[in-house]
TrEMBL record, chain A:
Organism this protein belongs to: Marinobacter segnicrescens
Any one GO CC term of the record: cytosol
A molecular function (GO) term: phenylacetyl-CoA 1,2-epoxidase activity
Origin: domain of life: Bacteria
GO terms for biological process, alphabetical: phenylacetate catabolic process
Record's protein name: Ring-1,2-phenylacetyl-CoA epoxidase subunit PaaA
TrEMBL record, chain B:
UniProt name for this protein: Ring-1,2-phenylacetyl-CoA epoxidase subunit PaaC
GO CC annotation terms, alphabetical: cytosol
Pfam families linked to this entry: PaaA_PaaC
One GO-annotated biological process of the protein: phenylacetate catabolic process
Origin species: Marinobacter segnicrescens
Cross-referenced NCBIfam families: PA_CoA_Oxy3
Domain of life: Bacteria
Length: 331, 258
């Protein structure tokens, strides 16, 4: 998922009795699965939590263009190049669409982007990993978009209307990305040379664990989850989502003829789920704190793009004003 | 080109020029991925790049059929070296600042627009149909790039400076785009492609109109022009573009699939 460790500001969830009349009415609406719309009253904590979550998601879509942009100039065929370009364009669209949903909550896109560039807010840890070979374009689609979908399918039922609707639209495209990514890997494994097959396995080895980290820390380490669940901003716990992802992904992995870098990964008949090894949470927190392989480069690239483009936006504003002035003078 | 050039040879050569220019400009725009001055521009740049690479694929496919020597569209794009590439010098120029990016786009779009407008009427149905689809896309490209030239030219002092510099620097690559050689003359006589004189006049007319509206000074009529792309003599940039773009095909020559 693209939003990890979203702060809610609540130490514990209030009971209905402790709530003000407004809060109680709001919570009853949530409990009845009535969507909250921008014009409706909402608790400040709810609003702020959503702004944090949606902006994290939007930032992730935008930063997520960079690891793919790293290969778009080197895509091996016309078909693959066009597919990758279309995918990247979709991700930019997701970013725009999510920033709009966020702005319905009274937040400002430019301000939120400034916070990203100042390192004050997060984006998904996964995009701080480098894309080192072509197969990564397959793996990112399959595992990264795949993990995002598992989370986002559930978020289609999130309580905030504009966010829910954004998720419905975005999910369709993410599923397409996932299938396309898997197809890249499948073609390489079926018809590729030995070198190409090694490329695929190497790519899976590098992206496996970071993809599992996309769901965020274990439930007992997620202090904000309870409030987010009560508000139905979140609908399933991190561990539940992670398990769903693993259960659906392992058969696909086997179908590829590849392996995961996890000796503890095996089917558990009793649980009806795959067991898997311990995630290196130290690595996760390091990456989140800024100490991932590409954190510095990713933010630098984004910051340079927006800062370096200031004169462009300024020119567009000045021109629009002049045009308006001309029209007024003519009238 | 020798006088003995057949129409068929001219056509193959011309299709490669169209394809290569689309491809290289698309590649240049891909380099800007994640680096555009605004998120809306990120979308627009990739949109234009998608159109161009899509058009390149259509032209390459047709060229590969006509050349018929066993090479595919991908082979033409990813396995030819710079001296065999036939793209305009304009499109291989680096992205520079956004004024250069948009100036380059505008000069090319204007040429592309009038060229396609005439290819739509080609007796060769394949050409006409590829051109018809492309012409719709390029109409939008041209509208967009001329808008940006005007915004920069008539925006702030800084943007005006930058745009004027971009126009002055890029101008030397415009000459060869609107000068017809044997290939274009041969095709024109066969009813394929624009009347060379008309194309030059249309291009100059539109460019002057936009530059003037943008409060920019058009470079002098007798400015020196850089030529050579039509015979494979490129600027130093193209070799690097291809080194990157063709990397996988070159590094894994045995690969049959991607
Ligand atoms: Fe996305
Ligand atoms: Fe997403
Ligand atoms: Fe995606």
């Amino acid at each position: 998922m693209y939003a990890q460790l979203v702060e809610t500001g609540a130490k514990r969830v209030k009971s209905l009795e402790e709530m003000s009349p407004e809060e109680r009415e709001f919570q009853l609406k949530i409990d009845a699965e009535t969507k909250i719309e921008a014009k409706n009253w909402m608790p400040e904590g709810y609003r702020k939590t959503l702004i944090r979550q949606i902006s994290q998601h939007a930032h992730s879509e935008v930063v997520g263009m960079l690891p793919e942009g790293n290969w778009v100039t080197r895509a091996p065929t016309l078909k693959r190049k066009l597919q990758l370009m279309a995918k990247i364009q979709d991700e930019a669209g997701h970013g725009l669409y999510l920033y709009s949903a966020m702005e319905t909550l009274g937040a400002d896109r430019d301000e939120e982007i400034d916070k990203l560039h100042e390192g004050k807010v997060k984006y998904s840890s996964i995009f701080n990993y480098p894309t080192l070979n072509w197969a990564d374009m397959g793996t990112v689609g399959w595992l990264v978009d795949g993990a995002a979908i598992v989370n986002q399918v559930v978020l289609q039922r999130t309580s905030y209307g504009p966010y829910s609707r954004a998720m419905i639209r975005i999910c369709k495209e993410e599923s397409f990305h996932q299938r396309q990514g898997y197809q890249i890997l499948l073609d390489l494994m079926r018809e590729g040379t030995e070198e190409q097959k090694q490329m695929v396995q190497d790519s899976i080895n590098r992206f496996w664990w970071p993809s599992l980290m996309m769901f965020g820390p274990s439930d007992d380490q997620s202090p904000n989850s309870q409030q987010s669940m009560a508000w139905k901003i979140k609908r399933k716990s991190n561990d539940e989502l992670r398990q769903m992802f693993i259960d659906q992904t392992v058969p696909q992995l086997e179908f590829l003829g590849c392996t995961a870098p996890d000796p503890d990964l095996k089917w558990n008949e009793e649980r009806g789920h795959y067991d898997f090894g311990e995630i290196d949470w130290q690595e996760f927190y390091d990456v989140l704190k800024g100490n991932g392989p590409c954190n510095k480069e990713r933010i630098e690239t984004r910051k340079n793009a927006i800062d370096g483009g200031a004169w462009v936006r300024e020119a567009a504003r000045a021109y629009a004003e002049k045009q308006q002035q001309k029209q007024q003078n003519a009238a | 080109m020798s006088k003995a050039m057949t129409q068929q040879e001219a056509l193959q050569e011309y299709l490669l020029r169209l394809a290569d220019s689309d491809m290289i400009l698309g590649q240049r725009l891909c380099e800007l991925c994640g680096k555009a001055p605004a998120l809306e521009e990120e979308m627009a740049l990739m949109n234009v790049a998608l159109d161009l690479v899509g058009q390149a694929r259509n032209w390459y496919e047709y060229a590969a059929e006509l050349i018929d020597d066993g090479r595919s569209a991908d082979d033409l794009a990813f396995r030819r070296d710079a001296h065999d590439y036939r793209n305009a010098l304009m499109v291989e120029q680096p992205n520079g600042d956004y004024a250069v990016t948009m100036g380059r786009q505008f000069f090319f779009d204007a040429w592309h627009y009038f060229t396609l407008a005439s290819l739509v009427k080609a007796p060769d149905e394949r050409i006409a149909s590829i051109a018809a689809k492309a012409a719709k896309e390029v109409q939008y490209h041209l509208r967009r790039s001329s808008e940006w030239v005007k915004r920069f030219g008539d925006g702030t002092e800084e943007s005006h400076q930058r745009m004027q510099t971009a126009v002055d620097d890029l101008w030397r690559f415009t000459g060869e785009m609107i000068e017809a050689d044997d290939v274009e003359q041969t095709l024109f006589k066969a009813g394929i492609g624009p009347n060379p004189e008309q194309l030059a006049a249309d291009w100059k007319g539109l460019v002057n109109e936009v530059l003037t509206e943008a409060t920019l000074t058009p470079p002098p009529e007798d400015a020196w022009m850089y030529r050579g792309a039509k015979v494979g003599h490129h600027t130093e940039h193209l070799g690097y573009i291809l080194a990157e773009m063709q990397f996988l095909q070159r590094a894994y020559p045995d690969a049959k699939t991607w």
